[in-house]
Amino acid sequence: MHKTLISCVFWQCSIYVKQCINQLLLHEHLTLSNSAIFRTMDNKKEVEDEKKDSSSSVEEQESSSSSLDQAEGGDSDTSMDKIRKFLEQKLHIFDNNSSDHVEKVLTETTVDGVVEFIKTHNVKKIVTMAGAGISTSAGIPDFRSPKSGLYHNLDKYNLPHPQAIFELDFFKSNPEPFFVLAKELLPEGYKPTPSHYFIRLLHEKGLLLRHYTQNIDTLERLAGLPEEKLVEAHGTFHSGRCLDCQASFDLPWMKEKIKKATVPKCEECSEGVVKPDIVFFGEMLPDRFHRLIDQDFPEAELLIIMGSSLLVQPFASLVDRVKRSCPRLLINKEKVGMQDRLSRFLGISSGMNFDSSNGRDVALLGECDKGCQLLAEKLGWGDELKDLIAKEYERLDTETAELKEYLEKEKRPPGNEKLTLLEALAQNNVTKKH
């Protein structure tokens, strides 16, 4: 049943692509004889099905695919070339450097190759992208991991589907489940991980152009990353806003309401629900995100992706915004964001390709913290990173102890004695100034 459904979807997509291509070719007086391109796709699919039943090697599969392309004849090749050139000119969606003669970006597609590239090319503009995987070692669950991910532990909320808890339309009709879950999501009592401090170390060495994060836990801020270097693509718990009158509310106000497991109502209009400024499905990402991606990614000399499933758009598509000469390093438990079969067939530059001869995509599989420590060691920064983590943890422990002492002296009213660490440090700094 699943295979049938996939086949239907694939065929519908092929029909849609054919219609789009024919519309475009109409303006250039080009024709596709007998739908050669889609006959090729159908034949490829038949060959792929046969391959699954055989024990042929990967090399034999590639050879068979290549022979199939040649067997289609000159008309098909000519049509494909014309299509690619036309769409490249009009839509800029094809990989201009997809030929076999493209010079490799890295001498070897390994971590050592990336390290060599950084050193020999004097890399100064590194863009990092991060997902929930860099925060799991701090005790914050990610969303999609089996058994431990948040999406796999939402049965008690009686949702139509797991993602509904972060859908704006569902939130407007039934906000209670989100605010029950929000108590678990609040950035409280957590410390940044070695991955966060690796990003900070990049900044301190003058190598970080910008850090883009999907996370709402604010641990990058707590790790000491300057705000101008940070883009919180999916928003933050730092503030909230009324959905009706747009009145804004700060984190302490939001925390007080969320801890009581009540739906926060606006104190200005008395009607609207106050939602934290995190981005839900169905909402636009922050203006800062859209403004800076056009500036940062074309300038990037190295892209590092850490702990992300690369499933949520438009964040996932950012990997395609760097130039072709920019290496891309994935530090993750598994390979993600890979180019799909249709994109490969059409020659569209989309997604990561760890098996390509382009020599720029590298996967370092495993825990993000271990991967960051390994990369730091190969760059000669291993001890420096360890010392930074130890120093920062000691500082956070000291400031937390000082805050507890301060709260006891001030006799803070019951129910409000527990702050997020960011709140606490801010209030403690204000107290020290006075």
CATH class of the domain at 103-140 and 193-234 and 287-409: Alpha Beta
Classify the beta-strand content into a percent band: 5-15%
Please describe the biggest sheet, giving its number of strands, its sense, and whether it closes into a barrel.
6 strands, parallel
CATH architectural type of the domain at 103-140 and 193-234 and 287-409? 3-Layer(aba) Sandwich
The Cα radius of gyration reads: 25 Å
Shape: globular
How are the strands of the biggest sheet laid out side by side?
Answer: 3-2-1-7-8-9
The beta-strand count equals: 9
Query: What is the CATH topology assignment of the domain at 103-140 and 193-234 and 287-409?
Result: Rossmann fold
Helices and strands, in order, run as: HHHHHEHHHEHEEEHEHEEHEHHH
CATH homologous superfamily (4th level) name of the domain at 103-140 and 193-234 and 287-409: TPP-binding domain
Average pLDDT works out at 75
Q: What structural category do the secondary elements indicate?
A: alpha/beta
Helicity, as a percent range: 40-55%
Catalytic activity: N(6)-tetradecanoyl-L-lysyl-[protein] + NAD(+) + H2O = 2''-O-tetradecanoyl-ADP-D-ribose + nicotinamide + L-lysyl-[protein]; N(6)-hexadecanoyl-L-lysyl-[protein] + NAD(+) + H2O = 2''-O-hexadecanoyl-ADP-D-ribose + nicotinamide + L-lysyl-[protein]
Pfam family, one: SIR2
InterPro entries: DHS-like_NAD/FAD-binding_dom, NAD-dep_sirtuin_deacylases, Sirtuin, Sirtuin_cat_small_dom_sf, Ssirtuin_cat_dom
Active site: 234
